[in-house]
Amino acid sequence: MIGCLLSSPADSQVQYQYRILWAFGAPGANGPVGPLVFDGKGNLYGVTEGGGANNGGTVFELTPGANGQWTETIVYNFCSLPNCDDGASPDGVVVDGDENLYGTTARGGPNGQCADIGGCGTVFELTPEANGQWTESILWNFCSLPNCADGNSPSYPPTLGPRSVLYGIIREIAFQLTPGSNGWTFGTLYTFCYPANCPDGSGPSSSLTLDAKGNLYGVTAGGGTDGGGCVTGCGVAYVLRPQPGGQWQEAVLHSFQPDGDGIAPGGGATPHNHGLYGSTEAGGGTGCLGGGCGTVYQVTRGPSATTSPREQVLHSFAANGDQGDLPAGAVEFDGHGNLFGVTIEGGGFSCGCGVVYGMKPQGDGKWAFQVLHAFDGTDGGAPNSALTIDSQGNLYGAAGGGGPNGGGVIFELSPTQSASK
Length: 421
Known about the structure:
Blueprint: E1 2-7, E2 12-23, E3 32-38, E4 44-48, E5 58-64, E6 70-77, E7 88-95, E8 101-107, E9 122-128, E10 134-141, E11 159-160, E12 166-170, E13 173-180, E14 183-191, E15 202-204, E16 209-210, E17 216-222, E18 236-242, E19 248-255, E20 263-272, E21 275-282, E22 295-300, E23 310-316, E24 325-333, E25 339-345, E26 355-361, E27 367-374, E28 381-383, E29 388-389, E30 395-401, E31 409-420
Antiparallel strand pairs: 1-2, 2-31, 3-4, 4-5, 5-6, 7-8, 8-9, 9-10, 11-12, 12-13, 13-14, 15-17, 16-17, 17-18, 18-19, 20-21, 21-22, 22-23, 24-25, 25-26, 26-27, 28-30, 29-30, 30-31
């Protein structure tokens, strides 16, 4: 299946071919979520929040074959509620240089304080063994600290830092897990909505992104200083900077505003070329929730260190539009500086099943927008997380629904040909 065209850096047009790598089972039984990750051998890993042998979700591996086909292996089956000491409903995984997998589960774990919601959730590690099996270890059970100071029910996969330190978000807390000789130690980096009225943001709505200097970036769906236009705030983009003595300092890079700016940033914030990029789920124009159907934005700092960051809307989505609406997941960049993302809805088909889109910088502060693939339901629907891009410019992603078996798909979009304009 051939998708649409994206202008390439060589001033030509690149055509993308869509292919399903793996189709999951019956609706509601599987549903891949979260971004995919590659190991050093070219295998893809991801999670389903349900399904599996125990209906508690799975971690899966997709292995490419010589014939272009991919083979799925279930790395781990999480247990069935309510007795889920190993966790249930995974949110996503990351991989380290030794091909160990780390992730979070929204439910399960041995802590009985959260029995009414199916468990407090966990941080886990999966270690590959020589016999091809994987061993799960629970690194942290949430709500283990007095008065549940470590929170419960994480919703986003962790971020892996140097020396195997894990960074994450749980409720209003940004945290780190540090390995040591006596196990893992939980530390709170920052608690949001600490000042009155939440000018620092409330409701963190993404995983954290780590840059080369050790700074962490993210977004919140609410809070900020918007003059009351969003009742509980339109959200913020923020940075957490490490300070001497092990402390962290939060700074709001942009406080989103109603009336065209974008509302409720989600999916994450991606540093690129001295800017920060992401999407908002609403705002940006007319129609849809909050006066608009979402935006793609850029936050950049001015020419001097004392200049406040400036936000620019790069694209606004339209209600029921062919270009999609309700963007989800972080945006990602290829090696040429082109930006890629997904929307959960819209796309021109009657199902409104979402799109994969690409954007190319034009050199004048504007960006060219193109739909690379619009889902029609039979080939998947509702892509829900950031794309993964390999060195050849191939795009990989997860659609949470639709597909041949109705349970979602893992897909690939490959650039197939270039032609002069």
